[in-house]
Amino acid sequence: MQHVSKRTINPRAFKERAISLISIRNGESELNFTEMLPTEMSVKIFSELDVRSLCRASVTCKRWNVIIEGSDNLWRNHCLSALSVCHREVDGDRSDGLSWKVTLVRNYHKSCVKRRWLRGRYSNIRCVDDLPPNSMCALDVETWGEILEAELER
């Protein structure tokens, strides 16, 4: 069983650490760790990031983007955590041949919404106007059935 990191990193702190820890002076030019380490080691480092930090790291520079976008395993680990919530959607996307990243992008928001509903975050909603933004999305009938059952139990 693969280890999935639940650690979240403050984006500002991540950027500051990236600037101070990753840049290494080599004469007049700066090299970052991805240029000095084998790609497999860089992937291992990136695998410690949560989804949001991973997405932000992918837009840091071209080299990081190439490594992050090219490593399906980085996205697989995060997708497996969404799988526990949206297993039908993830299984369907994977059987259609979509990459782990595309599958994660398609299902991450759904998994967050479903998880919040199942935890009772929206249990005290009295009308549509009380719903916070991003609390609704297209989910299948079985998922809404699970949410309804959870609400009825509360």
Automatic annotation (TrEMBL):
Keyword Nucleotide-binding: no
F-box domain sequence ranges: 31-78
Any GO CC annotation of this UniProt entry: SCF ubiquitin ligase complex
Bilayer-crossing regions: none
KW NADP (keyword) present: no
CDD domains from the UniProt entry: F-box_FBXO48
Pathway(s) per entry: Protein modification; protein ubiquitination
Gene3D superfamilies: 1.20.1280.50
Xref: InterPro entries: F-box-like_dom_sf, F-box_dom
SMART domains: FBOX
Alphabetically ordered keywords of this record: Ubl conjugation pathway
Superkingdom classification of source: Eukaryota
Swiss-Prot/TrEMBL GO biological process terms: protein ubiquitination; SCF-dependent proteasomal ubiquitin-dependent protein catabolic process
Listed PANTHER family: F-BOX ONLY PROTEIN 48 (PTHR12874:SF9), F-BOX ONLY PROTEIN 48-RELATED (PTHR12874)
Protein name: F-box only protein 48
Biological source species: Bagarius yarrelli
